[in-house]
Fold:
Amino acid sequence: MKKLAKLSKGLYVALCFAFFYIPIFVTMLFSFNSSKSLTKFTGFSLKWYIELIENSEIMSAVWVSVSVAVLATAISTVLGTITAIGLSKNRKLIREWITNINNIPIMNPEIVTAIGLMLLFSAMKIEKGYLTMLLAHISFCTPYVITSVYPKVRSLDPSIANAAMDLGATPWQALTKVVVPMIKPGIIAGVLLAFTMSFDDFVISYFVSGNGVMNISIIVYNMTKRTNPTINALSTIVILVIFIAVLVVNIIPLLKRKRAVANEKSN
Amino acid sequence: MKKVISLIICGVLILGLVGCGEEKPSIKVYNAGEYIDTSLISDFERENDCRVIYETFDSNESMYTKVMSGEKYDVIIPSDYMIERLIKEGFLQEIDKTQISNYEKLIPGILSKDFDPENKYAVPYFWGSVGILYDKTVVSEEDINAGWEILKNPKYKDDIYMYDSERDSFMIALKALGYSLNTDDKSELDKAYEWLVEQNEIMNPVYVGDEVIDNMISGNKSIAIVYSGDAAYIMSENENLEYFEPEEGTNIWVDGMVVTKDCADVELSHKFIDFMLDAENAFKNSEAVGYTSSVQEVFEEVRDTIYNDNSAYVPRQGGAKDEYFRYQDAETKKYCAELWTKVKSQ
Amino acid sequence: MKYFKNLVKPYVLWSSVMIIIPLFVMLLYAVTNSGNSLVNIQFTFENFKRFAEPVYLNVFVKSLKLGIITVAICLVVGYTLAYIIAQFKERTQTVLILLVTIPMWINMLLRTYAWISILSDNGIINTFLEKLGLSPISMMYTDFAVMIGQICDFLPYMIIPIHTSLSKMDKSYTEAAYDLGANPVQTFFKVTFKLSIPGVLNGVIMVFLLSISTFVIPKLLGGGQYVLMGNLIENQFISVGDWNFGSAISILLASIILLAIRWMKKIDTGENSQK
Structure:
C-alpha cells in the first residue's frame, strides 16, 4: 500500500515535469532537424543555427534583449536599493504612500502598464525605440527590486549606519561599506528578478517599442505566423544559457558552503 | 565581483553607443508581413551602402493606426484604398518618376486606377484578387460553384480559415449578398454583419493571418480565404489545392509603394522603389512570395515558368462584378471596425 | 539619519512620471472622445457605456470564465505537486523547485510557440495518434489549446508560493492533529490546507492576474476569433485605433483585478482573525 502511494506520487511528479519540459524538449529537438518540418524528424543538421547567425534581424534582437536587460537591471537595482534604504528612514505616511504607488505596476495587468507607458510616450512626443523600451523596462523592474530589498532593510538595526558615522565614516562610506553589504541577499534577489522580468518581457516592449527596434519576444511574435525552425534554434540557445546560468547561480552557494565546511573541518 | 559587474555595464554602454553611432544613410520601410524576399533588402543595403529599417504590419488598418500615432516611415507599401486614404489626408508626397527608371515596364492595366487616377503617388508593387483556396479531394465541384455561400455550407464546419481582416471579411459578406463592396449604406453593412455572425455561428471558422500559409500547405483545413499570391505559393507546395474566384464578384487589388510626406531621404526612397521594379529583383521577389508581379516582362516570365499552370498567379481581369476597394469615410470606417470587433468577439 | 532620508526623492520623481502620469493620461483618454483638442475638452462616459453592450460583456464573461477555470486547474494540480514536493528530503526539494522555476525564466513566447507544433492538426500529438491507428483530433485554435498554453505558462506561479508556505509549516501541527484522533483527510483540510492559505492566495492572485489579462496565448493558440479582454484592448490600440475605448477597457480591467485582489486579501485576513 505504502509502496503504491509512493509510486503514484512519483508518477504524478514525473507527469507534471513532463508537462513543463516536453514543449521545451520538442523545441530543442526540432532545431536540429534537417528539414523545415516541426513534426517529422528527418535527420540531424545544424543548418538552422547557421541561418540564425546569418539572420542579422534576429541577432540584433538578441542584442537588444540582452543590453536592455543588463542596463535596466543595473539602473533599477541602484534606484530600487537607494529607495528601499531611504524608505525606512521616512515617516510612516510617506512610506505607505510610496509602497502603495510601488505596488501599482506589480498588481496591474501588464497590458495596462504597457498602454499607460505607450500613451505617456506618445503624449510627450518621444520617438518610440530603444530609449522608450529601456525606460519602460526600468519602470517595471524597479518595483520588484524595492519589494525584494525593502524587507532586508527593515530587518537591519537602524543604529548601524549611525554607529559607522560616529566612528568617522562619511554617509557615502556608511552606505556602501556597511548598509549595502548587509542587505546583499535582498539586492541579489532583486537583480535576478529584474533581469528575468526584463529579458522575458513581451507585452510592454510590444507596445512601447518602434522604429524597427525589436527584442527577442517581439521578433518571435512576428515570426510565429510561419513555420520557422530558426526560432527553435534561437529558443534552444536561450534555454541552454538560462539553464546553465540558473545552475551556476544555485550551485555556487552550495560549493561555497561545502568549502567553508571543509575549511572548518581542516582547521 | 563588483569590478566584473561594472566592467560588464561599461562594456554594454560603450557598445550601445557605438551601435547608435554608425552613420549610414537609412530608410524606414513599412510593408505587410511575408510580403518580400528578405534577401532583396540586404542586396539593396549592399548596393547602396545604406541601412534599411524594415518593419511589417498585419493589416492595412494596423498600418494606418501606427502611422496616425506619429510613427515615421519613408516608404510604405499599403493597398489601394489605404493609399487613397493616405493621399486624402495628406500623408504622401508625389513620386518623382524621373527617378524611377523602371517605371515604363509596369503593366499598363493596373495603372491609373481610381484610388490614384494620375499615378501621382503610388507605384504598383504586387496585384491580385481575393478568393477561396480549397482542397480538390474534399470539396466537390458543385459546392465550390456555390461561390461565397460555400462558407456557410455546414458540410465544411470547422474546416475553414477566414482572413483576420476587417475589410476583406466585409467584402465577402457584401459580395455574397450582392452589394457593392464599397457601400456606405448602414443597412447593407448591418446585413453583412449579420451574414458574418451567422457564418461564425454555423461554421465555427478560425480567423487567421499569415498563419494560413503553412496551415494550408500541410492541409490542416480544406477551405481558406486567401489572397491570390498566397494561393499561388501554397498551391506550388500542395498540389491538392485549387484557387477559385466566385462569380458574385470579388475584390481586385493593387498594392503600391508610396513615399511619405516627411520622408527623410527622398532620393534613397526612390532608389528603393526603382530597385524593387528591376526585372531581376522583381522576379526573385515574385518567385519567393507567389504574388503577381507588377512588371510586365516579369509577370509573363513567372507565369510561363515557375507558376506555370497555377491559376492563382493570374488573377481574374475584367470580371463584371469585381471591384477595387475605395476610400471609406471616417464614419463608415469606424462603423465597420466596431462591427468587425463584434463579429470576432461573438 | 537625514542623510538617507533623501534617497527616496529620485524614485518619488520617477514614479510620478512613469507610474502616476500614465494612469492619468489613460483616464483622460477614457473619459473623452477622439478628435478632442485640449482646448475644448468634453468629458463623456460613452466609452464605458459601450462596454455594457452584450458583445463586450460576453468577452468579459469569457475572460473571467477562462481565468477562473485556469486558476482552479492550476490550484488543484499545483497544490498536489507542491504538497508532494514538500514531503521530500530538503535537498531533493531544492532541486525540484529549481526545476519548476527554470521554465519561468524562459521567454513566455518561446514556450507558447513550442505548443503550436505539438498541438497543430498535423502536429506531434496527431502524428502519434495516427501511428496508433486513431483518428486525429483538432486541438489548435480551441479552448483546449488556449487552456493548455495558459496552464503550462502559469502553473509555476501557483506552485512556488504554495510550496513556500507548506515547507515553512511546523510538522508538529499535523502530528498534534493525528494525536487528537483526526484522520488524514481531516488533518489535511483542517490543519495543512488552512495553514497554507496565504501561499494559496498568493498563487491564486498571480495566476488570475496573468490569465485574465493575457493576449498572446489566445492569439497564438486560439486564433483571431478568440477574443479575451487583453485581445480586445490590443485590437483597439493596434488595429482599430480607438484609443479612447481601449483606455476605458484597460481601466475597467485594472479595477476589476484590483477589486478581486482586495476581496481575496480580505479572505486572508478574515481567516487569520478567526484563529
Q: What stands out?
A: Chain B has two domains: 24-125+253-313, 128-251+318-345.
